[in-house]
Amino acid sequence: MSAEEPWCDFEEDCRSAMTTTRRILDLGTGGGERLLRLLQEVDGRSRTVVATEGWEPNLSVARRALADHGVAVLFYHPEHGKALPFPNGCFDLVMCRHEAFDAGEVSRIMTPGGLFLTQQVDGRDVEEIHEWFGVPFLYPDVTASRQVEDLQAAGLHVVTVDQWQGSQTFKDAEALVTYLALCPWDAEGFTVDEHLETLARLDSEAPIHVTQRRFRIHAVKAATQ
After folding, report:
1. Burial class (CB in 10 A: 0-12, 13-18, 19+), 84
2. What does the alpha-carbon distance between residue 180 and residue 139 come to, in Å, rounded to a whole number?
3. Signed CA dihedral, 63, 18, 48, 39: sign only
4. What does the alpha-carbon distance between residue 173 and residue 208 come to, in Å, rounded to a whole number?
5. Which stretches of the chain score pLDDT less than 50?
6. Which residues are bridge partners to 194 per DSSP?
7. Using the 8-state DSSP alphabet, how is residue 223 labeled?
8. CA 54 → CA 32, 74, 154, distances in Å?
9. What is the separation of C-alpha 120 from the centre of its chain, rounded to a whole number of angstroms?
């Protein structure tokens, strides 16, 4: 598989913002690899950095990866509907890459003048896969316009919105099936036996192309709040 990369550099957005902020939260840090790279490039000794992660197997991995940098990793699953485990107004930078979030909770924990940076996978990502195999989108409401509305309703001022689409290419049907085994949310309930005819057709037309969709949003909490 090969994939084009968005023209916008979300990692640079985060790196730049970290140099001018002191209390930082990384939502959905995964195994901590991305945050670790950022901390290695930015002096974290004068900053308080905290992370959350909602997938249990990642927690111990992230905690080990980030321990030497003094980063606490707390369990938090954004789809459970619970409040973030932080008091009001305690972060001046919140970063969120490919993680669901509650706009009201993000606003609550941000300081006045604080910055929220997010990059998301659009809910209609790889739409061709859904068409070929007749599977619904799991998160059709994850769109730039919907998240802008939610952030504005939560009292944040949206300063940047960018949308991007690019190509993702699979060498053949075997590569596509392997991808779907690793990313089952892109075709929930998919089985090879059920879709042999479609897979054979796709393989005969290989390489196989699908459309990636991403967007990023930068938002600021009003300084008077």
Report:
1. buried
2. 17
3. positive
4. 8
5. none
6. none
7. T
8. 12, 9, 23
9. 5
The span from the CA of 218 to the CA of 216, in Å, is 7
What number of residues does the chain have? Answer: 225
Provide the 3-class DSSP secondary structure of residue 44: coil
The reported pLDDT for the residue numbered 29 is 97
What does 141-187 look like in DSSP terms, one character per residue? T--HHHHHHHHHHTTEEEEEEEEEEEEEEESSHHHHHHHHHH-GGGS
- Other Cβ atoms within 10 Å of 182 Cβ, number: 8
pLDDT of residue 43: 77
Whether pTM > 0.90 for this model: the answer is yes
Nearest residue to 25 (alpha-carbon basis) of 82, 76, 68: 76
* pLDDT tens digits, 144-159: 999 999 999 999 999 9
In degrees, rounded to 5, the angle at the alpha carbon of residue 119 between the alpha carbons of residues 140 and 88 is 100
